[in-house]
Write a structure and sequence with these properties.
Layout: E1 11-14, E2 51-54, H1 58-70, E3 76-79, E4 96-97, H2 108-127, E5 131-132, E6 136-140, H3 146-158, E7 165-168, H4 169-175, E8 183-187, E9 191-193, H5 195-208, E10 212-214, E11 219-224, H6 229-233, E12 240-244, E13 259-261, E14 267-269, H7 289-298, H8 301-307, H9 309-320, H10 322-330, E15 364-367, E16 376-381, H11 390-404
Parallel strand pairs: 2-3, 3-10
Antiparallel strand pairs: 1-2, 1-16, 4-9, 5-9, 6-8, 7-8, 11-12, 13-14, 15-16
The structure holds flavin-adenine dinucleotide.
Family: Belongs to the L2HGDH family.
Catalytic activity: (S)-2-hydroxyglutarate + A = 2-oxoglutarate + AH2
Keywords: FAD, Flavoprotein, Oxidoreductase
């Protein structure tokens, strides 16, 4: 028996073993699906897969789709603990198709975001999924912000973001009549989409290609399967057993004021960043003592809080008092008042922190530790823009799985 593995996001494991929890009671139709997600698929009636993906968010589903398209002969399963797919980060995000301007040149985030945005547009066109390539203005309202804006523009050019332009006051007004600013980056490649719809479409592709999606299946533990010589001869390459039960993760920040149009026509203001007191807790007073203990004892959170104390307090203050948020928004749109806005939904961001309290900026994919580490690939840090990058990430994961597990 190995210690249970903790997941920050999703994990791909090469498994050919039993699922002691059993599948029969685990399948439910997912919301908004034309057909039940748990039916169909080559292996739906068995409890054994060649590859298992844990987590039916956009990253897990894109990876499952990439793997089955590349290896149609393998039996592949997605295990999701909720009754519906993509209801956590993927279903609680801002819906922006990011252009890739913000990220450090040469980082995985920068490369995968630029590739991923192109792939998402192409995929939506193929599947007839609605999106809007509405563009984005990144605005400097104070003189002192202009050097930073210009540096960001240069970074965007280095990252290969398409169509970037620096524009002046009068052009800002032409594009956004209510917005005031001294200079802006016009970023026409940015768009918006409903990522839950995209993720569900990935699941559909996956199932049509023969994959199985099992909802209401919470993985608690992964252990080595007993390997009988006869089953090994039978092709059981990396036997492991996956058990149902509980797991944890980690989280924190965002920066800046955003006005984000949504596919439904509303506009979201924010998000600002405050500490969530519960994993998957979307209401202001959601609290879990166990989650808080985990975050405090197992991450560099205390150091992060001490290093960013005044920023954290100001974010908390803005979250409590809408008038404080409005003050910030008025720097960009002076006419806006408290009466024009109301509280919107929240999302909880899974964000890896190192022991020194630094946010881990880039995506992190790696194997686990110990003997079982040779059989799993973890997606340890996939914060924004992982939805934009999901198709590019899935290609990378499929390459890594191919190499690591010698498929
Ligand atoms: C507020 C907010 C705004 C964002 N805005 C954007 C944006 O505009 N553009 C963008 O590109 N990105 C954005 N992001 C980031 C993006 O949403 C995430 O990076 C992306 O959704 C991560 O996908 P995922 O599949 O890793 O995680 P998730 O969507 O959270 O999926 C993980 C899944 O794993 C399941 N799971 C967990 N543990 C288990 C277990 N033990 N057994 C079985 N299943 C399990 C969960 O139930 C969940 O369904 C935003 C994120 C937040 C929080």
């Amino acid at each position: 028996m190995v210690p249970s593995l903790r997941y920050l996001g999703s994990a791909c494991g090469l498994a050919r073993g039993g699922f002691p929890g059993g599948f029969s009671g685990a399948c439910r139709p997912a919301l908004g699906r034309p057909r039940p997600l748990c039916q169909g698929g080559r292996q739906a009636s068995t409890s054994s897969f060649d590859v298992v993906i844990i987590g039916g968010g956009i990253v897990g589903l894109a990876s499952a789709r990439a793997l089955i398209l590349r290896y149609p002969a393998l039996s592949i399963g997605v295990l999701e603990k909720e009754k519906d797919l993509a209801v956590h980060q993927t279903g609680h995000n801002s819906g922006v198709i990011h252009s890739g301007i913000y990220y450090k040149p040469e980082s995985l985030k920068a490369k995968l975001c630029v590739q991923g945005a192109a792939l998402i547009y192409e995929y939506c066109n193929q599947k007839g999924i609605a999106y809007k390539q509405c563009g984005k203005l990144i605005v400097a309202v104070e003189q002192e912000e202009i050097p930073r804006l210009k540096a960001l523009y240069e970074r965007g050019l280095q990252n290969g973001v398409q169509g970037l332009r620096l524009i002046q006051q009068e052009d800002i007004k032409k594009k956004e009549p209510y917005c005031r600013g001294l200079m802006a980056i016009d970023c026409p490649y940015t768009g918006i989409v409903d990522y839950r719809q995209v993720a569900v479409s990935f699941a559909q592709d996956f199932q049509e290609a023969g994959g199985s999606v099992l909802t209401n299946f919470e993985v608690k533990d992964i252990e080595m399967a007993r390997e009988s010589p006869s089953r090994s001869e039978d092709g059981m390459k990396y036997p492991i057993v996956i058990r149902n039960t509980k797991v944890p993760d980690s989280r924190f920040p965002f920066l800046g004021v955003h006005f984000t149009p949504r596919m439904d026509g509303s506009i979201w203001l924010g998000p600002n960043a405050v500490l969530a007191f519960k994993r998957e807790g979307y209401k202001p007073f959601d609290f879990s003592a166990r989650d808080i203990t985990d975050i405090i004892t197992k991450s560099g959170l205390i150091k992060l809080v001490l290093q960013n104390f005044s920023y954290g307090v100001s974010e908390m203050y803005k979250a409590c008092f809408l008038s404080a948020t409005v003050k910030h928004l008025q720097k960009f749109i002076p006419e806006i008042t408290v009466n024009d806005i109301f509280r919107g939904p929240a999302g909880v961001r899974a964000q890896a922190l190192d022991q020194d309290g630094n946010l881990i900026e880039d995506f992190v994919f790696d194997g686990g530790v110990g003997i079982i580490g040779n059989r799993v690939l973890h997606v340890r840090n996939a914060p924004s823009p992982a939805a934009t990058s999901s198709l590019a990430i899935s290609r990378m994961i499929a390459d890594e799985v191919q190499q690591r597990f010698k498929l």
